[in-house]
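Q: Can someone sanity-check these two? First one:
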Amino acid sequence: MTAPSDHSIAYFVSHHGLGHASRAAAVMEAMHGLDPKTRFEIFTKVPRWFFAQSLSREFGYHRMEVDVGLIQESPLRTDFNATLCRLEEFYPPDPAKISLTARILRARDCRLVMCDISPVGILVAKEAGIPSLLVENFTWDWIYRSYMHTFEAFGKHAEYLEEIFSSVDYLIQTGPFCVPKGADLTTRPVSRRVRTGSAEVRNELNIPQEAPLVMITLGGVPARIPFLDHLKGFPGVYFLIQGGNRAEEFDGKIIVLPYRSNLYHPDLVNASHVVIGKVGYSTLAEVYHAGVAFGYIPRQDFPESRALVSFIREEINGIPIGEEAFFEGLWLSRLEDLISYPPLNRPGPNGSDQIAQFLLGLL
């Protein structure tokens, strides 16, 4: 077992999509920049490779289900009945598992438990006698309450989780957040930093430096892209599809990358002129800091989407795209408008750096 560092922090990360993992990775990497001795012990069902790709230093990885979230039947659709069934099975968590995990934290001399947005991490922190810190732009109790008009059974789970979330020792809200609270810190959007410049990324992909590049991404959920053939009708425009349903391939000006790619997602966003994708936190944050245009697909069944769309309208050059219009390729009629938007400059700090400074003060 690796010897404990000066600062060991446990990080419990929701596996709902990759947005929470992306935000957590950005915070951990920023903390490593301020204090390289900090070691993170990560508890999550998000695959280990995601953190290995995102972090420059060693970390502990513990595969563990740390919340239920919402069960997706597609990138834009939720299976509410399956979610309710899993909530009934999962909560309250097994006390023996909470106790065992608490012993792991004490054995690794963890001084803080961070949660994005896992209620299980808060319970483990209390069992271990360690301070807890919640990083959120929404919490699951708020999400579940929004569905009670159709699925009344969400009510008891919302009530149970609200009590847990309200017991946390420290609260950080990352913009754009859904419900303002008395947070210990509020930040700008949090995203992983660009590592490789646009020119180098384009050289690797054989894309001319000045050619328009349109990136299509669905936020870590693989999906079938039915309009690939339509993209061939745009000479001079290159398309990069992240998370397609085919293995990596290069077909002229259309590049399809698999769900797990060696190319770093923030670098791809930064090298693009336009990003087309669903409204999710990590994609929004990366688009925001890169200053590129956004063809955004709101999620009609997810309450967070309303707050994110409001932020996009105020802060990002973009055009809304309906779910049906996306899959049928109708959004391509607005492609020239999206490409014509100039890039935006973001001189302010990344929210990850604001959180790292806060953590340094705590430790």
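And here is the second, same format, sequence then tokens:
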Amino acid sequence: MPRSLDLLHAALVILVVSCSRQPAAPEAPTRAAENAPAHAAAASLSLVESWPRETPLDHPEIPDTAAVWLEMIGAATSTLDLGEFYGASVDGEALDPILAAVEAAGARGVRVRFLCDASFYAKEPAVADRLATMPGVEVRRLDLGEGGGVMHAKYFVVDGREGYLGSANFDWRSLDHIHELGVRIREPSTIAVLAAIFAADWAQAGPGGESAASGIRAPGPATIDYRGAPHSIRAVASPRDRLPDPALWDLPALLALIDGAQATIRIQLLSYRVIGYDGERFTAIDEALRRAAARGVQVEVMVADWNKKAPAIDDLKALVQVPKIAVRMVTIPPASAGFIPYARVIHAKAMVVDGRHTWIGTSNFSGDYFLKSRNVGVIVDGEALAADVSRVFGDLWSSPYAADVDPSVTYEPPQVGPPTPKP
């Protein structure tokens, strides 16, 4: 489809949001939305999780990522836009039904667009290439390498009416062997922002590499239902210079949450680094957490054991020596079937402040995620969601898999990828 029609589609989504703001017809209740009342179906939020099999970390009342993805893709009638860091599948594993659902959507006339990162495609081309052979499915690769970034977001939009975003990659391991958190969203202004970001990136990845100027402005907070309670939601994203409106930038919003904290901050990430993957120093979040601790806020930071190497471990050792700041690393045991590369890890990206303000997104905490790479997220104000995310956090924090970072210990990095071939 020509680029002009891509932009028209995004503009129509935005126009519907700004002019009508009328709720869609209620959908039949499902497990993914079992706690959302029927009257709020067009403005509702569901928390979504993945958990490593063979651990007791599942929360049966929270819908599983794979089930939610299957339901959303199966319900698509006109468009399905997937913005993904990469795709990875193994025959017989959890992504197979998802790929079959995408293929079925294209076969029934849904226009499917799959956007992935160009640099990671070079390492993991199989899923993107397979999708490209499916009728009704178009694949593009977004190259942000010139600015030092990657297409790191993980989200999709269905029919311009609902979406998913979260930490789970389009990867079989993310569905069965990694701890992930995400959200399913039915709220027009939030979906319009995701649609506009996708349209811009899709155009950038197309012939000529032209950016799409959507004209959308950052909407104000919208009311959304979570488990029968009204919450406030707003979309955030990065990097600043690739947003339809700089007011959507997530970094200032996260810093404001931290600087506004009065009692508690709980953060779960894959990684926390002052020295980023790009080698550049980024202290904004580290300094904000130290300010919070200095005024008496209890700060808890939980990351994966993949951080047991420099420079990440040095940054964590320095942070944990600040009074009122606790840091733990989580080690998930190997699967009984044996070692799985790039799996058995906590990967969620979430923060809860004062038991009321929740951020769920796709960024880890180092500068390159906010300054160079494409990421998306939401900030939700409301006690019910904060309580559920805090419970997920607390179950991990108090589990036998978590251990305090000890500044005096020399840590041995875990095996993350395939074994290095011997010379």
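A (reply): Looked at the second one. The CA atoms of residues 86 and 116 lie 5 Å apart. The chain has one domain: 3-259+342-397.
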